[in-house]
Amino acid sequence: MNSNLWIEEKFEDFLGLKFKVEKVLFSGQSEFQSVDIVETKGHGKMLLNDGLVMVTERDEFAYHDMISHVPLFAHPSPKNVLVIGGGDGGTAREVLRHSSVDKCTMVEIDSMVVDACREFIPQTAKDLDHEKLTLIIGDGVEFVKSTDEKFDVIIVDSTDPIGPAQPLFGEEFYQDVYKCLSDDGIVVSQGESSWYAMDIQQSLLKVLNTVFPKSYLYSFSNLTYPGGLWSFTFATKKHHPTNDFSAERVEASGLTFDYYNAALHSASFALPNFVKKGLEGLIDND
Amino acid sequence: MNSNLWIEEKFEDFLGLKFKVEKVLFSGQSEFQSVDIVETKGHGKMLLNDGLVMVTERDEFAYHDMISHVPLFAHPSPKNVLVIGGGDGGTAREVLRHSSVDKCTMVEIDSMVVDACREFIPQTAKDLDHEKLTLIIGDGVEFVKSTDEKFDVIIVDSTDPIGPAQPLFGEEFYQDVYKCLSDDGIVVSQGESSWYAMDIQQSLLKVLNTVFPKSYLYSFSNLTYPGGLWSFTFATKKHHPTNDFSAERVEASGLTFDYYNAALHSASFALPNFVKKGLEGLIDND
């Protein structure tokens, strides 16, 4: 094998992130995108879709903790949860740790991602056969249009708004999301980087604002995405993400986390001024 | 010129950060290190010491806001401030915005960094001739050993603990820092990345704990450093970084910031669990 094998993720034409690769474990081309899993030096196994880093074993807990536990603890008693995307299984894994959750439905468009992660990244995929999980290989856009179910929390764990994920950033999709959320439902969505992709954040938040009474942005630090300061949007029919949240709820759950904690839950909604300014009028963060 | 010029910062043997370069503005070799300033595409002008990215015009406000305004607002009335390192001038620039500050002394070991930034990065170096600034080209280690002055806040704006900055991570240095801090003094130091350099954080915090009654770590997201989640240590003789801080103090200052704000001040001390666990017994963050 090539002893000097690297994967490089380019951002626009001015930034590159290079990761040392020990071994290519899987390379495929699905109907939707290219799917690669490599064993890296320094970051464990890594999933790439269309050449963009999605997940690494080293830091996936940060992303999966923050996309799931923030809405699941902001809601007082989430029972029925929908995950759209998240084919690696890490988000569903974290959702299923909550004892209040009776059912988690996961709708992933690309079976190749799911199958490859089942085989090569069990760290994230290990609960894809959980008894409370309904795994649907299909289009999340179609699912929210046609389902009669009501969900307490919907998590849109999408890739960037290119390729198959593009409709997941549109207004029609979020009107359907609103429709299938319970009266006190919350939707959290992968929200890009404030450093490099504020235009996408603005566009997504404009859509959320047309549909939801209140929208917020919260941030965390992602090790392997360009920009580091990564975000999730939080749109809500009723519950305030921090005022209606209590540390006691986290304590009472008995759950432990490698990234998330109650102080960080609230802290993640405190945004730098350049983010607040860039998203002025689009977020209800105080 | 080379139309495909890139600078690559390697981290260990498994990570590379590549930045597109439009033009090399300055390249020199001082007594201490190599010093390069380049015009990048996407990040403005960039200073590198020994090939490591120190400052870019695009994101320097994040680092300089957080290294300076956190201690300066945690202290009720900082009058005499010492900056060790910080040759680009950005930290002194932010310190000098505080009207309570009567005097700021900056001790930078490498005149080449100062001179090059004066010429090519006025964005950070613009206040190096400020009437309240005493700029000393010399060894910060020697300065704190020999000075009779007492400082309210000391900011150690150092590079990584290699080359000229190595003594700035040692116990002898911090004993001298303690000695020349006022009775309610605070020292904040560049504290590396929790993702990639927790060993350095542990080592630095062990030193701080032998000298100071209380030590803390606070974090922010740095765009151009490997690891993103970057930290500063906060060691204090008296003032608690968040309990003794008030948002009113920030409001009353009349200052505006692109990164820092009162909510972020407190939020930056809320650390992910893996950081709290790795630094257990070494930090007094709650």
TrEMBL record, chains A, B:
InterPro entries: PABS, PABS_CS, SAM-dependent_MTases_sf, Spermi_synthase, Spermidine_synt_N, Spermidine_synt_N_sf. CDD domains: AdoMet_MTases. Homodimer or homotetramer. PROSITE patterns: PABS_1 (PS01330), PABS_2 (PS51006). Residues 4-237 form the PABS domain. Catalyzes the irreversible transfer of a propylamine group from the amino donor S-adenosylmethioninamine (decarboxy-AdoMet) to putrescine (1,4-diaminobutane) to yield spermidine. HAMAP family: Spermidine_synth (MF_00198). Its EC number is 2.5.1.16. The keyword Thylakoid does not apply. Pathway: Amine and polyamine biosynthesis; spermidine biosynthesis; spermidine from putrescine: step 1/1. The active site is at 157 (proton acceptor). The keyword Transport does not apply. S-methyl-5'-thioadenosine binds at residues 33, 108, 139-140, 164. GO terms for molecular function: spermidine synthase activity. GO terms for biological process: spermidine biosynthetic process. This is Polyamine aminopropyltransferase. Keywords: Polyamine biosynthesis, Spermidine biosynthesis, Transferase.
